[in-house]
Amino acid sequence: MESRTGYVRYTDTLPIGIVMRASSSKLIVRLFPFLTWARPTRRQNRADAIAGITVGLVLIPQALAYAQLAGMPPVTGLYAALLPGIVGALFGSSSLLAVGPVALTSLLTFAALQPLAEAGSPEWVVMAIWLALYSGLMQFLMGAFRMGILANLISNAVVQGFVNAAAVIIIVSQIPALLGFDTGAGENWLSTLWQEWQHAPWRLVATAGFGLGGVAALLLLGKLTARLPAVMVVTLIGIAGSYLLGFGELGGSVIGPVGSGLPQPSLPLTLSVDQHLALLLPAAIIALISFTEAMSSCRTMSRITGEPWDRNQELIGQGLAKMASGFSGAFPVSGSFSRTALNAYSGAKTARASLIASLLVLISLFGFTELLYHLPTAILAAIIIVPVTRLIDVRSLTRLSRENPKDGMVALVTLVVTLVTVPNLYWGILAGIAASLLAFLHHHAVPRIIELGVHESGGFRDRHLYQLPPIAEGVLGVRMDASLTYLTAPVLERSIRKRVDAAPDLRTVLISASSLNQVDSTGLDTLQDIWSFLDARGIALYLSGPKLPLREALSRTGLAQLIKEENIFATDAKAIEALT
């Protein structure tokens, strides 16, 4: 059986049963990608075990810290690290991506819920669960319908501006916990700090000692060795120090009792319709931003390992992981860049390393959470702050502004609006997207139009840039480096009219059409207007190098007969030969 192109398709020569089995196999692989995992070798198992244990030891305290950042009960951080990590590994496309609670998504969760409920309250927890479910469902549907390209709506400039602003917000938000003083919205830090000093100076000094000591220890251990789980080391030291000093009994802020046992899957139905609607926009922002963060990790790992990854399959994996977190009673999760990097550095070979890390979380939920009781919240603040400081990248922002001023401006707009509109961080994202669209429209609505001259190489070049004479006496040649559309066509017409008015001796106008990749109805109407304007002045219009879409449009509308076929040259070289 021949296809419409005239070629015999290979599948058409096969029995229908084989074709159907092949199609069903592809569907099964897409639904259950872990079925394609190869049988591991003993060496791979050993490497994955070491990497999984290393990441797991970091994941447990980080999960507690990011639960604190999201305004959630501590145990929900462990829930967010358990099933989502397993689901992300089984259904994602990148074998080394570590899925679980992360700083940026936790901050977005807190920012989304702060205007809607009281942090840590039952209503807050229920709304966080639905936020995870909605953002996960959005990602899953994007991946299932092969719409991963929608993630490109958020440009690199928007991401850079937002991430830098978010890093500053996260660090500032953790300073009170790091130094040991409580502050509410609108309260003056200095006055609150002074009141704390007068009331309980020992507690303030001890808390600041834990917090600042934790920051110093994390930075020092990070420089000494990347293989050592510095986060777990600092956590254990903090717990021991707090217990020996009786820090909690003396009024110090400790994490307190952490629940244990497996999460109980549930779907709370206590929210009103208005509350559900209020979660949709933040959920969409979390879906896009968190996937952009995960994509960055996937790309980096792909460059290092050479392993291919699929954007749509990763969206499915990330979406299912978020929904698993929601059904576990936790908050939205994402791919962690820092734990993914640690996973790779520790020698992980397959996604089984992530399963082992989740196994450690499972073990901690059965009998080990009691050991966390005396962990100072200042240590959790340090665990949040240190990795986040790496997100502040002024050098990249400066380079972006230098290489592309428009992108630099988009990043600056995103950064400033995000900082100004705290806690409604999504306004920063929306402002960045709007600025990106405006920059895109400006770029395409103000195209580069050059006057042509014949270069010594024999082709057309910008005559003002290369200081070339006109193509010939009485001949004006122009080229617009853009498609001929409703945005650009009026600009081309104004440019030609202006140049013709300034040179009354012109007899010929040549438009080099080699760069006109697309043309719409406005472009064709404008081309006819240009011909009419020139014809009224006795000036001939020529075209050179039109591509197939433009040639077909000219023939279909009759413009080819109006301009005359002999005035349309197949190439710029033919035009040069005829006009010079």
From TrEMBL:
Main subcellular location of this protein, as a coarse class: membrane
Sorted UniProt keywords: Membrane, Transmembrane, Transmembrane helix
Membrane topology: Multi-pass membrane protein
Coiled-coil portions: none
Annotated compartments: Membrane
Transmembrane segments: 49-67, 79-104, 124-145, 157-181, 201-221, 233-256, 276-295, 353-373, 379-398, 410-441
Superkingdom: Bacteria
Pfam family, one: Sulfate_transp
Residue span(s) of domain STAS: 473-579
PANTHER family for the chain: SULFATE TRANSPORTER
Protein name, UniProt field: Sulfate permease, SulP family
Native source organism of the sequence: Marinobacter salarius
